[in-house]
Amino acid sequence: MDITIDDNRNVYVVSDIHNYADGFKRLLKKIQFNESDLLIIDGDIFDRGDKPVELYFEILKYPNIQVIQGNHDVWVARQIIEQFGHRKTGEYISYNTVAIMEKRLTPVDMLRLAEWIQEKPYYINLTINGRKYQIAHAQTFLTPERMFDKRKIYMGDGHYEYFIRGMEEQEQFISVVGHTVTDNRRIWVSPSGRTIRIDCGAGYKCYGKEGTLGAIRLNDMKEFYIN
User: Fold this and answer.
1) Residue 111 C-beta-side C-alpha neighbours within 13 Å
2) By the number of CB atoms within 10 A of the CB, which of 9, 128, 178, 185 ranks highest?
3) How far, in Å, CA of 144 to CA of 156, rounded?
4) Can you give the residue ranges of the Calcineurin-like phosphoesterase domain (predicted)?
């Protein structure tokens, strides 16, 4: 998917919310999110936390929120389709999301959720006033549209460990990714500024571990955090 912004519209990116609905709602208030802004959720909406329904419904309120599929979202959709649609769509790891949601949603609504997830892109090529970004859950690529194995985009390939250290960067755009928690639970920008990592560990708060929900405003690189 390609998005071009040629005005003063604020563009925010957050990732790895992991069912942390309360934190996400507080984040929207903190950034004063309004109808003229764009918020991109860079994957892993679901799993780990205990409020997937609340988070899902909150996201649906906003037509100016764009979602990218992360590995946990892919797995949730596959589990739903297997469990409620009675067909296989690929391997998945089952966490807690489907078990929580099926207590409150009908089978039809569950299948609609799976369809909603699978309609989302695996990456976004974003241009803000001429500055180019690629936003993907785990790893960016020069020609992701030509890749048969989309798993590399939301899980990473053999170069992933080098990529997230800023050792294999793209010259054509700035990469914005989540998936792997940053060391200090704050947004990490590589020395060159061409790799931005935004998974700040919110998904581990439910385990009593340190983590924050971090978002970045790409217009001016301002960071926002919810503990």
Assistant:
1) 11
2) 178
3) 12
4) 11-183
Q: Supply 58's token pair.
A: 């909150």
What is the dihedral sign for C-alpha 224, 213, 117, 194? positive
Residues 147 and 131: beta-carbon distance below 8 Å: no
Q: Taking the model in full, what pTM does it have?
A: 0.95
Q: How confident is the model at residue 10 (pLDDT cuts 50, 70, 90)?
A: very high
Q: Which two tokens stand for residue 25?
A: 């709602």
pLDDT band at 64 (very low <50, low <70, confident <90, very high): very high
For residue 91, CA distances in Å to 49, 67, 75, 122 come to 22, 22, 7, 17
